[in-house]
Amino acid sequence: MSLTKKSSTASARVRPVSNGKRKIYFTIGPTHTFNGFDKCLDSALKKGIPSISHRGREFEEVFKHTTSSLKKMLNIPEGFHYFFMGSATETMERIIENCCEKESFHFINGAFSKRFYQTAVDLKKNAMKFEAPAGEGFDFFRAHIPESAEVVCFTHNETATGVSIDMDDVYGLRKSYPDKIFALDIVSSAPTVKVDFTKIDCAFFSVQKGFGLPAGLGVLLVNDRCIDTALELQAKGINIGSYHNFPTMLKTEERKNTPETPNVLAIYELGYVCDLYNKKGVAKIRKETEAKAKLIYEFLDSHSELKAFVKKPQWRSKTVIVAETPRGSADVIKKLSKHGFVVGPGYGEFKDKQIRIANFPMHEIADVKRMLRVLKNK
Amino acid sequence: MSLTKKSSTASARVRPVSNGKRKIYFTIGPTHTFNGFDKCLDSALKKGIPSISHRGREFEEVFKHTTSSLKKMLNIPEGFHYFFMGSATETMERIIENCCEKESFHFINGAFSKRFYQTAVDLKKNAMKFEAPAGEGFDFFRAHIPESAEVVCFTHNETATGVSIDMDDVYGLRKSYPDKIFALDIVSSAPTVKVDFTKIDCAFFSVQKGFGLPAGLGVLLVNDRCIDTALELQAKGINIGSYHNFPTMLKTEERKNTPETPNVLAIYELGYVCDLYNKKGVAKIRKETEAKAKLIYEFLDSHSELKAFVKKPQWRSKTVIVAETPRGSADVIKKLSKHGFVVGPGYGEFKDKQIRIANFPMHEIADVKRMLRVLKNK
Asked: Are residues A202 and A323 in the same domain?
């Protein structure tokens, strides 16, 4: 967003100048800001959002608006609570602190599901795991979850490897383990993934991926069972953290408030983008996401050199698409960059061998096609 | 910042439209954005800051720039580390987790110093305290800090009551207790307070007060002694937290990075405002702050009705000025609001009996005078 006359119509453009140098960010997150971000920022500044008190009525309205727009969009039932935190990584820590006295169980198939597991290890819990090789999903029927595990952690969409799990498998497991807390990472699949919130207990995401916002806000949705568990642990004298423990978060949520001064601007922006998504319709967004994903995977399946890292179609993420680059990732990234397309390298050990392409709601099909044309001529 | 032609010169104005409706926020924080915020946001968007990867070279540059500008401004010596977190409240939790195995000691004279204490209680530490009545400072010579206390917590500027402590008292205590970790809250006094960082071990602030930024970033400065303590606790098997424990923060700081996706935009903005402050000179900012504070306290001391809550001049905060409003705070706040001046109510139990006026670097003396004129006619 520029204040010069030249770009005064930026907000009306398909590709806002806000991403600088007319680049299209196909990175996994932070990623391209949503179409309308300039206007959103403009409206926030006009309303004085950066300056309003987080203890006043104006913030209460922002809180109410954002949570109700989110509730509508993700079809979140009554009995869920909306906790705003610093990052999705923080939400992992808070879930373990508040829902697990001794034992947690983790499905791991990449760096982010492993981070959830490691968080539990760091917090001195007995963290157990069921691992799948990178690029693969799980054979859930072979997973034995011990009776002693209090919380079971799933990563719907593994941001590192581009593997997605079928939510029906989670719901299936739920039938076998109805008394355990099911915690769901939807960091890189929200809002595209359709979650039946009656079959899980908590879910979390951050705003710099599918919502196209600047980073700095994590959202944790928890049901009453999570709250009750935290209260039980607290009553037992267990350390469940301080300002961001669930009982404290709940008390402030009831006042449409947060324990600390939160990222007010990001909460406002999240409400704004949820409204836009609701206006368009999440069903339509999901359909478009599938169409774009199909395009990219078909391209990779027919390419002579680049190949989808995830082989089995049922495991392929629709939002994080990982491609193997046999002659190294650097050249491919550079080539795309010359045409204004920014894609990310593979994660961790795959940095030099893969690229990762995001397919979020703000990524337009025309740009996907243009990007693939550049890749084709690679 | 508007994209319409009408406000295209907003960034050149003394009072940017970014605070909406031409209000001047004299609130304690979030407060008025710094003069130049529009331009800062504009430059961030042109550079694509909301979209850049937090694992890439561009972010490394932002990290380096912000920390070095901060280092220069606050005269922070070598051997200190820069940890970016979600809020100042979070930094309290991390200090206790990483620097305290069993016992902490707190100087309490208001809600925020109490929050630090409560954080230690929540984290199951034996938290000890030395309390002063609200509106008063401490007789430091009467404080007995037990040998067993590992960390001593000071709130330089009590945001709730407007009491400031003399840093010389802290340095005096340091001589008597050289082996304890001294933790300093400068949330509502940075960057105006002059801190001798060789005489403390860690300090923290948030950006929505003296830096005039939107909320959503806490900054924690820690020296090697804090790191060593955290490593010792970790080696002992103590829970020092997960992604934001000091050893993990240190490892990522060395790469000019953070463990999670941080509030990249706020880190950029902080560097921008530090540059502006450095350009002006912190000495000049401090002098101006004193002049404005003198003006406000002289006004209160001569007012027939409104009185400074803090009676002793040596305890009076220069940045958070609390006035008693014998006929209730609501009317005073309303009257000021009609003239475009936003001040905050008293904190907690003082909500209806006091107002709080911020005196930060972005508050111009002309506006302070105009605001006082309105108060005079009250």
From this structure: no
Contact flag A216-B216 (C-beta cutoff 8 Å):
yes
CB contact under 8 A, A3 and B4: no
Smallest Cα distance from B360 to chain A, Å: 13
Mean pLDDT, chain B, rounded, equals: 93
Please determine, for residue B138, whether its predicted confidence score (pLDDT) is greater than 80. yes
| Residue after which a domain boundary falls, among A258, A278, A298 | A278
For the cut 70, the answer to whether the pLDDT of residue B3 exceeds it is no
| CATH code of B194's domain | 3.40.640.10
Domain stop point among B249, B278, B307: B278
pLDDT of residue A141: 86
A23 shares contact with chain B (CB less than 8 Å)? yes
**Cα-based angle B339, B158, B337 (whole degrees, multiple of 5):** 10
Backbone angles phi, psi at A370, to 5 degrees: -65, -40
Residues B63-87: tens digit of each pLDDT: 999 999 999 999 999 999 999 999 9
The pLDDT of residue A238 is 97
Chain B residues whose beta carbon lies within 8 Å of the beta carbon of residue A8: 3-5, 8
Q: What is the ipTM of this complex?
A: 0.94
**CA distance linking residue B184 with residue B200, whole number of Å:** 7
The C-alpha atoms of residue B269 and residue B126 are separated, in whole angstroms, by 38
Question: Structural domain tally of chain A?
Answer: 2
> Both B296 and B263 in a single domain?
no
* CA pair distance B377, A207, nearest whole angstrom: 47
Could you list the residue range(s) of the whole structural domain that residue A30 is in? Answer: 5-35+282-376
Share of residues in chain B with pLDDT > 90 (%): 93
Structure tokens at B352: 């209806």
Q: Are B363 and B27 a contacting pair, CB within 8 Å?
A: no
Question: Cα B145 to chain center, whole Å?
Answer: 25
Nearest alpha-carbon partner for B1 in B56, B57, B40, B32: B40
Residue range B326-335: mean pLDDT, rounded: 96
